[in-house]
Structures are given as structure tokens and as C-alpha cells.
Amino acid sequence: MQILQLLLIALLGCAAHSAESAADKPTVFVLVGAVGEEEFGKQFTDAAAKWEQVVAQAQAKLVPIGWKSAETNDLARFKAALDSEPKEGAGEVWLVLIGHGTFDTKESKFNLRGPDFSGGELAEWLKPFKRPVAVVNCASASGPFLNKLSAAGRVVVTATRSGQEVNYTRFAGHFADAISSPESDLDKDGQTSLLEAYLVASSRVAEFYNTEGRLATEHSLLDDNGDGLGTPPDWFRGVRAVKKAKEGASADGLRAHQFVLVLSEQEKKLPPPVRAKRDELELAIGKLRDRKTEMPEPEYYKLLEPMLLDLARLYQRPAAGQ
Fold first, then answer.
1. Contact, 150 vs 137, CB < 8 A?
2. Of residues 181, 178, 238, 226, the one with CA closest to residue 202
């Protein structure tokens, strides 16, 4: 009897460890919406295929919706997949929306095969998640999703700045190219972050319209400070925002630069809890830097020093095998 109890405890422990490990790895939902014209369909699936390669390289979990399946009620499949996904853990949850969007002057929706969904609905479905979440809406008329989904610690990217930008967007293809390319590593740390992919993709979209001599019909935004306003790419110098949409808010981009799918060799050596603590410290340092001009210099450095020391200790632990 005692042996059976010990075996049961061991099995339960293994199951818990397995669930914890799964939640500590990134999950990437790649949604391909209703394609409309055939030419758009190929571009959407090409972008999704690039995401699939990146997810495989990252050894993350891929959840494909709207492609790789002949089913037509993609909304039900998406909601079921969200419901079954672990809600707690260190692993990031990426939601990548590739397709068309609509705007009825009040609400923006992402077009699926079958029923569509709005930014407000998606915000409700994401409420149970305690894991880091990033939403990359590459569709037309995606701007209103930013305000609905903006939350502390969450990253939201939209291909457009408003619901009125309803033309087909080229952002999805360029973002898929950027997230899968080492050339997008702007700060040369050996990996490409969500922020870097956003900046590179936005630059290539702008280049397309300039080269073609067309009036740009899409203007991307990124929000990760929770103010719901977003920051356009031209407010950044390198990977640092030099402008803020709202007085008193931290600059956008700090959290987005911590979302990385394919980790560098150095990053892989950091256990997930250590990486999470490091990210927390880096955010605190970034927010303190934003306030530097508001305080006397001695006070600034007095607050900064212990944070930097804590950060240094975190990097020492893995090196020491602790």
C-alpha cells in the first residue's frame, strides 16, 4: 500500500512538472483570417508559414487557426484553444492575426472564416491569463484593438493607427520576414525581439509606399506601457523611444524588447524564473531612467545602484551553476 502511495505521488509530481514546463515555454497562436481574393490568401499563408518556421526554431508551441484545416468555424476553435491553454507560467503567449479587418465606426473586428471577433471580445478572453501576452494584429482597421487590449505588462501591435485605415495592409508579410531574420537584431545582442521586428517591419512598409509613390494607407503602432495610446515607429531612435504619448507614462518599447522567440545562446542559459526577475529589474530601471530629469542627480543614482547590483547578481548565479 505504501509503495502504491509513493508511486502515485511520484506520478502526480511528474504531471505537475510537465504542466509547469509546458507553461514555461512560449505558445504562438497564428490566426489566418478569411482571405477574400486569392492573391491575398497566398500572402497570408506565406506569412503564416514563416511564423511556423520561427516557432519550430524556438521549440515553442504552435496553435494554427484558419489554415492547416478545412474547418470553417475558426472562432470556436480559437476560443477552445485559448480556454485549454495554461493560464499561469513564465512562457509568453503570442497572438498573431494575419488577414483582413473591418470597422463600423464603433468597433473593429478581425475577419475569420465564420463569425468574426472584436478587440473587446478578445480582451475578455484574455483576462484569465497571468502569463506574458503579446497581440500582433496585422490586419486592416486594426488600430482600435490597441485601446481595447492595452494592459499592464501586455504588448499590443497594430498595423494601422485607426479603424479608418481599411485598405489591405502589407505589415503582416514584413513582420513575418522581420521576426524570422537575424538582420532584424538592431541592438546586436544575438536575438530578434518583438520590438525590433516591429521597427524593421514598419520601416519596410514605409519604404514600400515611398518607392511606389503611393500615399501610405497603414501606420503601425505599438503599446506596452498600458496607456492605450501606442507609439509610432518614428518615435524611436534605435530600440529606445524618445517620445511618449502620455505625460507621466513610461516609454513604450521596454516590455516589447523582452519578448523574444528564438533566444540567443547566452539567453538560453538563464532559467525562466531568473529571466523573469531580470525582465522585472530591467523594466524598473527603464522606468527610473524616464524619471531622471524629474529628480536630483544624487537621488537618481542612489535608486539606480541597488537595481544594477541586483541585475549583476542574477547573471552571476547561472555562471556559478546555482
1. no
2. 178
